[in-house]
Amino acid sequence: MSSGAVRARRPPSPPPSYHQSVPRFPPKEGHLDADERRAAASLGYVPSRKSGHASGGYNITPGEWKLLVLLVVAASAVRLFRISRPDSVVFDEVHFGKFASRYIKTRYFVDVHPPLAKLLITLAAFVFGFDGHFDFAEIAKVYENTPYVAMRMVPATLGITTIPLAYLTLRGLDCRATTALLASFFLIFENSLITQSRHILLDSPLVFFTALTVFFWTGFCNEDKHEPFTDRWWGWLTLTGLSLGAVVSSKWVGLFTIATVGLGTIRQLWTLLGDLRVPPRLWIKHFYARALCLILVPVMFYMAMFQIHFLILENSGEGDGFMSAEFQHTLGGRSMADTYADIAIGSRVTIRHVNTQGGYLHSHAHNYPGGSQQQQVTLYPHIDENNDWRIINATQDNHPETDWMNFHELVYIEPGSRIRLRHLTTEKNLHSHDFRPPVSEVDFQNEVSAYGMPGFSGDMNDDWIVEIEKGSKRDSLSNRRVRTLGTQFRLRHALTGCYLFSHKVKLPTWGFEQQEVTCNKNAVMANSLWTIESSDHPHLPSDAPKVNYRKLGFFDKFFELQQVMWQTNAGLTDRHTFDSRPSSWPLLRRGINFWVKDQRQIYLIGNPMIWWLSTASVVGYVALRGFLILRAQRGYKDFENTKVVKYDTLCGFLFMGWGLHYFPFFLMGRQLFLHHYLPALYFAILLLCAVFDFLTSTFVRVGVSKSRRCSQFSLSGISLSLARWRMGTHGQRKNVTKLNG
Amino acid sequence: MADSSPRLRHRRPSSQHEPLPTIDDDDDQPPQDAGSPTQFELLLESPEASMTVVSILTALAFALRFYKINHPDQVVFDEVHFGKFAAYYILREYYFDVHPPFAKLLFGLAGWFVGFDGHFNFENIGDNYTDNHVPYVGMRALPAILGSLTVPVVYGIMKESGYGTVISAFSASLILLDNAHVAQSRLILLDATLIFFLSLTMYSYVRFRKLRYLPFSFEWWTWLIATGIFMACAWGSKVNGILAVFAIGIAVLVDLWDLLDIRKNPSIEQFWRHFAARAIGLIVIPVIVYLSFFWIHFAILTHSGTGDSFMSPRFQESLAGNELLMNSIELRYYDTITLRHKDTKVFLHSHPERYPMRYDDGRISSQGQQVTGYGHADENNWWQIVPTKALPETGRGRIVRHGDVIQLLHSTTQTYLLTHDVASPLMPTNQEFTTWARDDLSRYNDTLFQLHLNGAHEGEPVRSKSGYLRLVHVPTKVSLWTHRDQLPDWAFRQQEVNGDKNPMDRSAIWYVDEITSAGDGEDVSVRSTPQQAKTPKPLGFFTKFFELQLLMLQHNAGLTASHPYASVPVNWPFLLSGISFWTQTEGQKQIYLIGNLIGWWTCALALSLYVGILGADLLAKRRGIDPIPLAVRNRLWNSAGFFVVVWFIHYFPFFLMSRQLFIHHYLPSHLASALIAGAVLHFLLSETIEYPISVRGHSTRLRRRQWAELGTRGPIIVVVFFIALFAAFVYMAPLTYGTPGLDGETSTLSDCYHPGRFTSLLSRTSSMIAGQKAGGMKGLKF
Predict the structure, then answer these.
(1) Is the CB of residue A575 less than 8 Å away from at least one CB of chain B?
(2) B5, A5: Cβ pair inside 8 Å?
(3) CB-based contact A4 B5, cutoff 8 Å
(4) Is residue B760 less than 8 Å (CB to CB) from chain A?
(5) Which of B2, B260, B764 sits opposite A522 (nearest CB)?
(6) In whole angstroms, what is the distance from residue A134 CA to residue A94 CA?
(7) Which residues in chain B have their CB less than 8 angstroms from residue A274's CB?
(8) Where is it chiefly localized (chain B) (predicted)?
(9) Whether the predicted interface score ipTM is above 0.90
(10) What is the rounded average pLDDT for all residues in chain B?
(11) Which member of A53, A497, B572, B780 has the greatest number of CB atoms within 10 A?
């Protein structure tokens, strides 16, 4: 009921047709009186639209451009000061530097972050001639033959560019120049942003793209209020979409930025929906335009980044183990030659575990230290001749070695076939018996070993019964008999009824940390499925049908990688010495030790004055807003005051940005660090400045001079606190007296 | 809406009954001219018909819940816990559990009433009751009665909310014929109590809301206080009963927000009176009731029992027969003691081996003697307490007291414990502990430690076993601390001990385990027995309460181990998995907690319909179309909205919990969703509502009575649905009652909604039970 009442008094934005009927004069002619205006009209002056509305609502005076240049110079001075020091690896440069070297060597790797920021760093490294041979092995390792300054320049440049963006954004949000200047100073002298910008880290690109998105979005909103569906309107909207794609391609935290823009869009559409003068068709047009630019464009951008990622990383590398067999097969150095589709008694095969990426059924000439002390059977992820097994018929008692050799008709492996698997290099059979396995020592698990000797055909414990679980859709025969790559089957131990099984449990060092293989009486279906990856049979003619892995398209690879990234990300739950929970961030309770060497230290910590002021402004806004809501319920008409409405809209948007970049972290179980707060901090600082704008415009009515004095005062305070903290940021000596002495 | 509000305003002055502004509701727009009800409808809505229906439903509820209640005569699932707790109440032995005591007190009372002597300890799932002469049927009867009574209460909630007999019967039958509710009510489990009191809370609140035009009348107060009391009972039954408090809290906040609206209530004093009344009825009284449960709990459990070891030493000393009470001895200087860490139970240990000069990460040690944590008794755990002040020759002056500064002398190597600003082997942030030769006084200051007894007053003596203490280093203010990480081979993989820079760390707590030899050479056991009377030391109720409450919360959060039947909340409304309570391989019998498939899917469908209806209505309203009459919309928002709040509050918080979760946590939400299903069915069947349902106040206008028009199709649909529901119930009943019948046919049924899991269910469950017999798992909690 209340919304209806309000709507009656304050109509929402009028439709385009309404705009055009309003006469619009250039600002300079704004104070012509009625007579002069009539005279001007008779002289043929047409109300001009162009000069009435700057693109994106950014009315920047020439003087301000000069100011912006000065700001960039100041930001560069702070961020580039001795950027070459320290000349050793700092904190997560361990990872991101390493990824750059992997890109340059085109070796496949898996990381939890999307590729854009890493690609930018790689580009810089590549242009400046990095050969990828430096390994970034540990923090404080001294750089050799690495253009690390160029690589650090990428985050630094983006960090510098963030500052004019913040200025322009606040101007676009209809704040005064003084306020925007104050925001720039806050950002220039924010120690945590400086520290992040000076090293090869992803957070500076993230904050930059977040700022860029907010900038474009503000511009779009201003255009939308002015007149929709102009070229400029489309331009700003598309740029917002591209920038959204960029932010989410830097880090998944960018999804929070998408949520911020998304909520803003929903709000716009809801307002339009309530405007009964907007016909449904026009509303649909609004809807589709936004869906196109804010959903489709970012998705395309994101996928394009991954396409580049896949194109560069074409060779096998340390990330292979995360991916499925089909995926690995697409990487150079891991591709497999076509292999015979038919499997029969006598085939030489490699057997792969389906559910885990542990690899192939493997045995080697080392024995278990406990249990039966027989030869180990494990899963091994790499191609090796110890992965080769021969399928032998277990039902033929006489010379099972030879019968398939002389018997020229192929005997296929069908459900119920009773087979033995002979390990070729050691001439032992796959064997299981009533011993507990070395790691999973529980009742329902039996040990699996390789047992036998050359010439010995084996005992009953070597017998396994094939059960076909499912075949491939591509190969109809694979449902009826075991076929290479098509059939997923289980192997049941003939005597004890347990199933050949493996799970993500590693053997200790005596087993070379390969994956454990057991025989499980209560086997989970997924972990007891096996498939044959390659096969060879002497009696098969060379023109017999061959198969190979399915060629993966981009989308298969893309979705598989997304899933792997998600799982890896969720799995990052180990404690870290410097991790922290979100509740400690707004108060800056602790930082991160980035680098220590020779009595010098780099410690990530914010500028407490900026940090606490921004938190205070968030709390203040919430308290004031709550108070105003209570007053409204008791009949006060605060929300009809244009000033309250203006600042409420402004602060509400920034508060929403802050909240959406902060609260979701509470739901995350993974390890979190202080730098995850930085995007939220950006919004909090803008909110702080909006509050400043409100306070100075409300309480300091004496004039501009006083508000300027206010900002000067706070600036000097910030510079002071920066001076105290910069030691940490720039890696200065820990102990000042030592510097003097 | 835009056009309805001006009409409202216009109409009011013309009303003759309105001398004063009143608390009014948006309901005062009658939906339309509903025709007079038919004879059949009148008959259905008559009190006699209503009574008949509810009697039949209740009788059926009792029949279904008491059917074969004596089967199985074995301990099932969490009866392991809750049966045991009842026994402890009867034996008056102290125990510890994460749940508040109300429901367990009721079980204790039931057990006492039917003559259970408490001498059966419900050790394992599958233990036989008959052989051990346990009157288990009497104890199971309690939840069965409460579970059966839930059905008429649900009927009452719907009826009082203004839905017809038919709709109310529909909602009640969703609970009546639900296999999960039945299975849960037939065993010694807490959920039936929780659900019963939750439904009573909702019923009382609905009655209270209906009296909103007669504020501060006697009935108004009665229902307000009843809401508060029942809410406290739900809260006191189980930890998640606190959600009932939140649900009512939200409803009250919405109510108060309306009262704050200046158009409805111009006087702010009136608002504060309402506020104060609700604070008394829904905060003060429930808290008193909740505390009184704990008061009774402590008053009954006065003897030492299994729960002792969870509690602080002071708490333990308030229990008769407690080991601490019997064995604790005051410490004197020059006594040799062993010091044990509270959380990891290792002894403070040292041996002549030294720290290596350089660790693997390149940091450098002091190369001092190693100080570690060691799990086994050993002479190297012996430390002598050396004073730092002059002592009298004999007497009480030699007693070690809270706040004293002491040195600890390692007996075998004759060195003093010391810590200094050198990083510890594993944690660069913490200080290394080492020892220093006895005769070298150069590091005297670094060997000083201050004793802080937890919660002690000035000058309280330190006692073995009973006092938790911190050892704070005097010069650097770090606390002696240890954690589970092991040192490498050079320290024999013993636990690292270091100095924690947060001296108030909760895990930096130690206690004196034993006095190995007394300083003055006499026998330690002689020392204290005569002086101390071994009577329990009383402890204040609130001290006990807060300690227990804190422990309950901590342990509840700590229940994170995985469990074969734990499930994720997303699956609950769709009934994707259940819990095997009990299996008997011979005869293929099993009790499997799973709801009525038709019932649960109906509820899930109703929820989505509700969201759909309101969503479509909101959109339409935004475009200036009014598809639903105002009164019907208000009924959907206010009445069904209340049920949705209850549903949501009892469901959503589980998404945020990382502890193990089971499908029975959804049962309170399921009850709410059954109510929503009734409301949605009413909306689908009829465009009219019964109106007004609130009791008329002194200054409210007379409004013409409206009838909800259901026609004859309403009863027919509900009867058909009831039959379908009953068929599904009977079909799944073997799983609920643990009767034979789990042949291939039924397991195919189970496979329908439980793909791939059911096949190995029997074997898994039997191995689980085997594990429990081996003393491994102890069922599950919550």
Answers:
(1) no
(2) yes
(3) yes
(4) yes
(5) B764
(6) 11
(7) 622-623
(8) endoplasmic reticulum
(9) no
(10) 83
(11) B572
A581 touches chain B (CB under 8 A): no
Tell me, yes or no, if B257 comes closer than 8 A to chain A by beta carbon: yes
Q: Quick check: B2 and A4 CB within 8 A?
A: yes
**Phi and psi torsions of A535, nearest 5°:** -145, 160
Residue B514's alpha-carbon distances to B50, B313, B324, B336, B347, in angstroms, are 71, 15, 11, 9, 11
Residue of A nearest to B259 (CA): A633
| CA pair distance A62, A64, nearest whole angstrom | 5
Listed range (A22-31, A289-298, A307-316, A645-654) with the worst mean pLDDT:
A22-31
Residue pair A388/A360 in contact (Cβ under 8 Å)? The answer is no
Helix, strand counts (H, E) of chain A = 22, 16
Residue A526: predicted pLDDT: 83
Residue A187 in 3-state DSSP?
Answer: helix
pLDDT at residue B757 above 80?
A: no
Tens-digit pLDDT profile for residues A325-346: 888 888 887 777 888 888 888 8
How far is B303 from chain A, CA to nearest CA, in Å? 39
Contact across the interface for A522 and B760, Cβ inside 8 Å: yes
DSSP single-letter state for residue B417: E
Nearest CA among A397, A402, A390 for reference residue A430: A390
A680: which residues sit within 8 A by CB, 6+ positions away? A585, A657, A658, A661, A662
User: Across A152-156, B17-21, B742-746, which has the greatest mean pLDDT?
Assistant: A152-156
- Pick the closest to residue B527 from B330, B703, B334 (CA basis): B330
Which residues fall within 8 angstroms of residue B447, CB to CB, at 6 or more apart?
Answer: B407, B408, B416, B417, B418, B436
Q: Would the CB atoms of A4 and B623 count as touching at under 8 Å?
A: no
Cβ within 8 Å, pair B658-A630: no
CB of A667 within 8 Å of a chain B CB? The answer is yes
Residues of B in contact with A634 (CB under 8 A): 260, 262, 268
**Segment among A146-155, A209-218, B535-544, B741-750 with least mean pLDDT:** B741-750
Nearest CA in chain B to A526: B756
Residue of A nearest to B763 (CA): A522
Residue A455 contacts B where some CB pair is shorter than 8 Å: no
* Residues ≥6 apart with Cβ < 8 Å to A526: A354, A355
Judged by CB atoms closer than 8 Å, whether chains meet at A577 and B427 is answered as yes
Task: At B418, give phi and psi (nearest 5°).
Answer: -150, 150
pLDDT, residue B513, reads 83
This prediction has a pTM of: 0.78
Going from the C-alpha of A469 to that of each of A29, A392, A495, A496, the distances in angstroms are 83, 21, 20, 20
Peptide bond into B692 cis (omega under 30): yes
Which pLDDT does position A48 carry in this prediction?
47
Question: In whole angstroms, what is the distance from residue B234 CA to residue B224 CA?
Answer: 16
The DSSP secondary-structure symbol of A668 reads -
A454 touches chain B (CB under 8 A): no
Residue indicated by tokens 């449904």: A280
Residue A86 has pLDDT above 50, yes or no: yes
Residues of chain B above pLDDT 70, percent? 88
All residues of chain A having their beta carbon less than 8 Å from the beta carbon of residue B657 are none
Report d(CA A410, CA A407) in Å as an integer.
8
Mean pLDDT of B515-542: 70
Contact A273 B763 (CB under 8 A): no
Q: What is the pLDDT of residue A707?
A: 52
How much is the pLDDT for A250? 95
First to last CA, chain B: 46
Identify the closest residue of chain A to B268 by CA–CA distance: A634
Mean pLDDT, residues B169-176 taken together? 95
pLDDT value at B489 more than 90: no
| Nearest CA-CA partner of A525 in A490, A473, A498 | A490
